[in-house]
Design goal:
The structure is a homodimer.
Chain A: E1 21-25, H1 26-43, E2 46-47, H2 57-63, E3 69-73, H3 76-84, E4 88-95, H4 101-110, E5 114-118, H5 121-129, E6 138-143, H6 158-169, E7 175-181, H7 193-212, E8 224-225, H8 235-240, E9 250-260, E10 265-268, H9 272-275, E11 288-290, E12 296-301, E13 306-310, E14 325-330, H10 333-337, E15 343-347, E16 350-355
Parallel strand pairs in A: 1-15, 2-8, 3-4, 4-5, 5-6, 6-7
Antiparallel strand pairs in A: 1-9, 9-10, 9-14, 10-13, 11-14, 12-13, 15-16
Helix pairs in contact in A: 3-4
Pfam families (chains A, B): Ala_racemase_N, D-ser_dehydrat
GO molecular function, one term (chains A, B): D-serine ammonia-lyase activity
Protein name (chains A, B): D-serine dehydratase-like domain-containing protein
Chain lengths: 361, 361
């Protein structure tokens, strides 16, 4: 980071930033946050933003509209970080781990609302054996697997009903059922919007069918959605049709560091260390698009270098002088963000905020 | 990290570590460092270890045999980190960037030896126009492209000789030619040892031919090698035949967090956030092997979850209780290490050191 402290970049023009740099457009971030809140209001759903894409206090503050209440985290490191940052009503979206129960137990004591997932009777037994002191209760979501095939109990499994009943009615003074949780991760395999809608519809139907088959009032309706990626969006979401291209707030700023005319290539100072290899199943060109230059293709990615060619082989080197910057639109924002210790938020071409994500587990 | 400070894990048995965790076997690390030093001694070559895989003071101390002299770095963040950590004789293996010249200039002043790469007359001109004060000189390696096709000037290009001559003979009081640099990154595309040896042989021949065609004494022989990955090694290097399986020092420790018998799967608490997606071109199973269980296959990787199946569908769930640990051998150590804020070094089953890598640029 240029030997300067991060904060010394506040006010700097983007072109002066040391590259590669993760940059976020503030207006786009704000628009994405506002649109999602509006959409949820219109649907009568509570929005509980997932923070795993950005992992920053600033991003979660924006997503919660400043309330700092009601988020989803994917790791205990995130849970502690956001709790320490003044957030509450935190759902740890992971089947509660016996070997880290002490940490969950501390968070359950410390926060007004710390919620966990359950998908097994063993998990419930664990909570019942380790009550939260001070008149507090374990707050539990039953994790259903509605076709995603990762964690969760299948709603058609007879044990699912038994577990829901046990959670809801077993020892309400110790464990309270907050809701039923499902994740449509299988939509990432979809090629178009109707396919995504079909999965969302199937998931909703499966959850509602399960809830209808079961009498406890806590499970009466779909009440919350937990989107995560929407604050940044990315090339993948834009290709899936989840967002418009102009709603993608994230870029990796990179510089042209060399001209290699004999092979028709520009060399960039952005490799997989700044971008990740997500999207690269069929080669590096899937990992990012070059903003404003649809004919440029990323054809190579090593740790700290990227190689760019023109689609038709006709690269106009004079348009891309050594030292000039390009903005890469990454395929998968969660993966790209994980590579950066700081994000530069900009408005009108200048750095206006620095966001620092939490790491680790 | 379990809410505890990292150092509180010193002495802890590996099985108690919060997972996922990057673990390194100390005896294997030491063996790898010693063997590479021995090999270089036998070949009469100086070993200048590349630190980009581990990015830690401790790893570089081990690789330099405690001298803390003579390393290669890939970013200026690394250069500053190692300079502050007492290292000197640092080669910044990147064509010297005009827009970050001030940082290079500071390092050139601060260190006894700070070396940079050049592959263009413009780069040389830049250094000549910005002399290092105090009687010091810019120390320069000419970067050749011997078939790798990334940075560098081709040795057969007439401009290469002209540039070498200009560096070596132009203004020796300002800029000194230290050597000629080539990187056989193209060996990663090789399927067997003879193919790798052929590329190494071609690269060596190209460099020596170039050097022989040019009269300056500084370029009289191949003098240094700059390996990077060998301290950790990984599944890829083991598959390429660059190391024996028992020489791979790196693992990601993970826990079984669920049994999904209806689909014959274990769920792990290690996703791409702890492993990267490197090696996954043909699916997640390329990203890591499960140590000691050759029939287990990684069939799914999301941000924080991994899914494992048995090759023949016959998974013995009793062997892998929920909460038990597995060790994953990652495909690409550089990429996996980049995902972790701390590495746990172990000996005889206990944590004996904690290494903290530098990040960013």
């Amino acid at each position: 980071m240029d030997g300067r402290t991060d904060s010394s970049w506040l006010g700097a023009p983007l072109e002066q930033l040391p590259t590669p740099a993760l940059i976020l457009d503030r207006a786009t971030l704000r628009g994405n946050a506002e649109r999602m809140r509006e959409r949820c209001r219109a649907l009568g759903l509570r929005l509980r933003p997932h923070v795993k894409t950005h992992k920053t206090l600033e991003g979660a503050d924006l997503a919660t509209g400043g309330t700092r209440r009601g988020i989803v985290v994917s790791t205990l490191a995130e849970a502690r970080f956001f709790a320490a940052g003044g957030f509450d009503d935190i759902l740890y979206a992971f089947p509660v781990p016996r070997w880290r129960l002490a940490e969950c137990w501390e968070l359950a004591q410390r926060l007004q609302e710390f919620q966990v997932l359950l998908d097994s009777p063993q998990g419930l037994e664990l909570l019942l054996q380790n009550p939260v002191p001070g008149g507090k209760r374990w707050l539990v979501w039953l994790k259903l697997d509605c076709g995603n095939g990762r964690a969760g109990i299948r709603p058609t499994d007879p044990e699912a009903l038994a577990l829901a009943r046990a959670i809801a009615l077993g020892s309400p003074e110790l464990v309270t059922l907050v809701g039923v949780y499902a994740h449509c991760g299988n939509t990432y395999g979809c090629r178009d919007i109707p396919a995504i809608q079909a999965i969302a519809r199937d998931t909703t139907a499966a959850v509602l069918e399960f809830v209808a088959a079961h009498p406890v009032p806590e499970m009466s309706q779909l009440t919350e959605v937990h989107p995560g990626n929407y604050l940044f969006y990315d090339l993948q979401q834009s290709q899936l049709g989840s967002c418009r291209p102009e709603e993608v707030a994230i870029r990796v700023l990179t510089r042209v560091i060399g001209h290699y005319r004999h092979r028709g290539q520009l060399l960039l100072d952005c490799g997989w260390a700044a971008l990740s290899l997500h999207g690269g199943q069929r080669g590096p060109e899937g990992c990012a698009a070059v903003e404003g230059h649809p004919r440029l293709r990323l054809v190579g990615l090593t740790q700290e270098h990227g190689q760019v060619e023109a689609e038709d082989g006709e690269l106009d080197f004079e348009r891309f002088p050594v030292g000039s910057t390009l903005a890469l639109i990454p395929f998968h924002a969660c993966a790209t963000a994980a590579m950066h210790p700081v994000y530069f938020v900009h408005a009108e071409g200048r750095v206006v905020e620095l966001w620092h994500p939490v790491r680790g587990w």
